[in-house]
Amino acid sequence: MSNLYRGDFNSKIDYVFKIVLIGDSAVGKSQLLARYARNEFSLDSKATIGVEFQTRTLEIDRKTVKAQIWDTAGQERYRAVTSAYYRGAMGAMLVYDITNRQSFDHMARWLDELRGHADKNIVIMLIGNKSDLGTLRAVPVDDAKEFAQRENLFFMETSALEATNVEPAFLNIMSEIYRVISKKALVANEEPESGGNSSLLKGTKIVVPGHEPVPSEKKFSCCRSS
């Protein structure tokens, strides 16, 4: 069993994982990105203009992984998010504001668009942001859990303001991407033409520090069903 570490490394990059942030304007996508990538939060954040992405380098199972996290760059206000934005994405975070019911109701449309453009094996996580504003909540947790279960998504609530669950959310989506990639490599390596060197690609369970391992169908209490 191996751990997932955070940090920056001088060694070669083994994998680059592209992750896209999707959702209505003003739900806090840019703030989530700033909190995770730079540990920053700005109360007077302006709408993103132009293409924007940030990177973080991690080590997973002794492999150096660079996470390249893309923001929708304000295009969502004009429903102009292009197929190029989704191209090559291995993970996606569907972000809504827990105080804005409409932003949650739009998740089905964003999910349809994502599935129409992205790889079928993309790892998708539903994110309810602004959990610090619990007294203004307009989206019950149970509604989000039900949607996540129905659509086979991972789910967490976060607060970019208070940095609540931001790190675990990104670590978990990257852990799951790594699991999918490792499984693909293992299957490919077991093909006859590979020479049968499958012993080199044994799957390894990844545990995020501070989070107890649980069966995948119970992760975050409402995740992928088997």
UniProtKB/TrEMBL annotation:
One Pfam family matching this protein: Ras
InterPro entries xref list: P-loop_NTPase, Rab_GTPases_membrane_traffic, Small_GTP-bd, Small_GTPase
Gene Ontology CC terms: plasma membrane
Topology in the lipid bilayer: Lipid-anchor
Gene Ontology molecular functions: GTP binding; GTPase activity
Predominant place of localization: membrane
Domain of life: Eukaryota
SMART domains, A to Z: ARF, RAB, RAN, RAS, RHO
Localization per Swiss-Prot or TrEMBL: Cell membrane
Keyword entries, A-Z: GTP-binding, Lipoprotein, Membrane, Nucleotide-binding, Prenylation
Stated family: Belongs to the small GTPase superfamily. Rab family.
Name of the molecule in the record: Ras-related RGP1
